[in-house]
């Protein structure tokens, strides 16, 4: 099979900002994540029998403090094995260490598959982990040392897929 290059990538304007504004999360343990996707853009998706039409209404919303959360997608390629896959890592930050947040971390970590859609600070929506979903892969609870240090929780999610994360356009 030939892998034909069909287009180039022009230099974009400098009108972009970093960071994650909000994460929408839904338990997908034991459920299929089905997407209607074309050219990496999802126009509709469902988790099991639940069709997601409104992220804020159909999923649980985890708002983020400005300039704290991040999403990193890494291309992993092995020339020796002839494989390419993508690993997505989402880090969410929650200020103020408290029992309700620790309990939410425990519930998230217990799930074997999470469907996650994030909104970045450019107003774009992304589905890391695509149809394979994501899992909690780590996290910290920290008190801080000085008065100005973060007191709170960091939760890290990881997902793997055979294609880059999808853009979501509902």
Brief account:
By secondary structure, the protein is mainly β.
Plain-language structure description:
The protein has helices at about 55-60, 100-110, and strands at about 20-25, 35-40, 40-45, 50, 60-65, 70-80, 85-95, 115-120, 125, 135-140, 150-160, 165-170. It is globular, with a radius of gyration of 17 Å. Strands 1, 2, 3, 4, 5, 8, 9 and 12 form an eight-stranded mixed beta sheet that branches. It has a four-stranded antiparallel beta sheet with strand order 6-7-11-10, covered by helices on one side. The protein is about 10% helix and about 50% strand. By secondary structure, the chain is mainly beta.
Topology readout:
Blueprint: E1 20-27, E2 33-38, E3 41-47, E4 50-52, H1 55-58, E5 60-63, E6 70-78, E7 83-95, H2 99-110, E8 114-120, E9 125-127, E10 135-142, E11 152-161, E12 166-168
Parallel strand pairs: 3-12
Antiparallel strand pairs: 1-5, 1-8, 2-3, 3-4, 6-7, 7-11, 8-9, 9-12, 10-11
């Amino acid at each position: 099979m030939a892998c034909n290059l069909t287009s180039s990538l022009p230099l974009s304007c400098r009108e972009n900002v970093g960071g994650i504004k909000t994460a929408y999360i839904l338990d997908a343990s034991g459920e299929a994540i089905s997407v209607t996707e074309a050219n990496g853009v999802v126009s509709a998706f469902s988790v099991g029998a639940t069709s997601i039409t409104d992220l804020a209404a159909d999923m649980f919303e985890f708002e983020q403090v400005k300039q704290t959360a991040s999403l990193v997608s890494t291309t992993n390629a092995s020339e020796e094995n002839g494989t390419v896959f993508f690993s997505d890592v989402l880090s969410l930050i929650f200020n103020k260490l408290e029992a309700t947040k620790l309990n939410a971390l425990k519930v998230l970590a217990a799930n074997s598959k999470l469907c996650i859609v994030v909104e970045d600070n450019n107003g774009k929506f992304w589905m890391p982990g695509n149809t394979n979903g994501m899992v909690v892969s780590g996290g910290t609870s920290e008190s801080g040392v000085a008065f100005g240090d973060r007191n709170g929780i960091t939760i890290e999610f990881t997902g793997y897929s055979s294609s880059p994360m999808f853009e979501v356009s509902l």
